[in-house]
Amino acid sequence: MIRERQPFTHASQLGVAIGLLSISAFFIALIVAYSFRLADQPAWERFAVPRLLWLSTVLLAMSSATFEAARYALRRARVSIYRVRVAATIVLAVLFLFAQAGSATQMIAQGVAAAANIHGSAFYMFMGLHGLHLLGGTAWLVVLYRKSATLLAGTETQLRIHRRWAGGAAMYWHFMGVLWAVLFYFLLRWTR
User: Fold this and answer.
1) Among 42, 103, 116, 121, fewest CB within 10 Å belongs to which?
2) pLDDT tens-digit profile of 87-146?
3) What is the CATH number of the domain that holds 146?
4) Chain centre distance of CA 161
5) Average pLDDT, the chain
6) How far apart are CA 18 and CA 21, in angstroms?
7) What's the pTM value of the predicted model, to 2 decimals?
8) Half-sphere exposure of residue 52, counting CA atoms within 13 Å on the CB side?
């Protein structure tokens, strides 16, 4: 018998989807607000977009790939491989956050202040708020990694429960990647 797969197989995934809708609304409101504010300020101090932002974008994309590879291993009950791949995802997430902090440091070194330059303010705001949300996702990955230790000698029921939590985490994690791509697009567009 073939079971039809439901879009949300667990209440936690529905909760994550609702949370992502509210995060989307928040960032859309920020983009619109900055768009209007930037339109009112035609003259602004130009600055170079830090190259580390490109590296951080690649790191975040790689972390999505490693997390999907981890989930692939989890679906096949290869817990040891899953744990290694989740750990790699966590490392890439931390490297992303360090690259973002390094980008902010480079902007400060260029003399880009949040108060004096609305474009700089947009960079700091988007990088900071996205970084906080990504830090929350990283904490979720750490919890998954720790809980996965019990799966090495666990039951199929424990695997199913863990797969659901990993599915919710994947929704959140991939959303953070797409969100960063959208934010980065606007940041680049606004500095032209």
Assistant:
1) 42
2) 999 999 999 999 999 999 988 888 877 666 777 788 888 899 999 999 999 999 999 999
3) 1.20.120.80
4) 23
5) 87
6) 5
7) 0.85
8) 15
Q: What is the structure's pLDDT at 173?
A: 96
Give the model's confidence band at 44: pLDDT under 50 very low, under 70 low, under 90 confident, else very high.
Answer: low
How far apart CA 65 and CA 52 sit, in angstroms, is 20
Instruction: Match 């599915």 to its residue by tokens.
Output: 167
**Which residues, other chains included, contact 41 with Cβ-Cβ below 8 Å and sequence gap of 6+?**
118
Give the total number of structural domains in the chain.
Answer: 1
Residues 152/74, Cβ–Cβ less than 8 Å = no
| Interatomic CA distance for residues 80 and 83, integer angstroms | 5
In a domain, 172, yes or no: yes
Q: Which domain holds residue 130?
A: 48-190
Look at residue 23 and tell me if it is in a domain: no
- Provide the terminal-to-terminal Cα distance of the chain, rounded to the nearest Å: 57
Give percent helix, percent strand, percent coil of the chain, each to the nearest 5. 80, 0, 20
